[in-house]
Design brief:
mainly alpha; about 55 residues; transmembrane; single chain; membrane
């Protein structure tokens, strides 16, 4: 079970970073409370993947 998760984790990091970048630009252009919250959650998930929490 651990082996497939290691492969998927790299793919998730590769997909999540561009989504965070797009969400950051969207938050800069049209800042709403939902956009800021979504960016924060995506950032926490990405940091969790970088620190191997997940």
């Amino acid at each position: 079970m651990e082996r497939w998760w290691c492969r998927v984790r790299g793919s998730i990091k590769g997909v999540l970073f561009p989504i965070i970048c797009l969400q950051f630009v969207r938050t800069l252009l049209l800042p709403t409370a939902f956009d800021v919250f979504l960016l924060f959650v995506l950032f926490l998930i990405f940091i969790g993947f970088l620190w191997d929490v997940y």
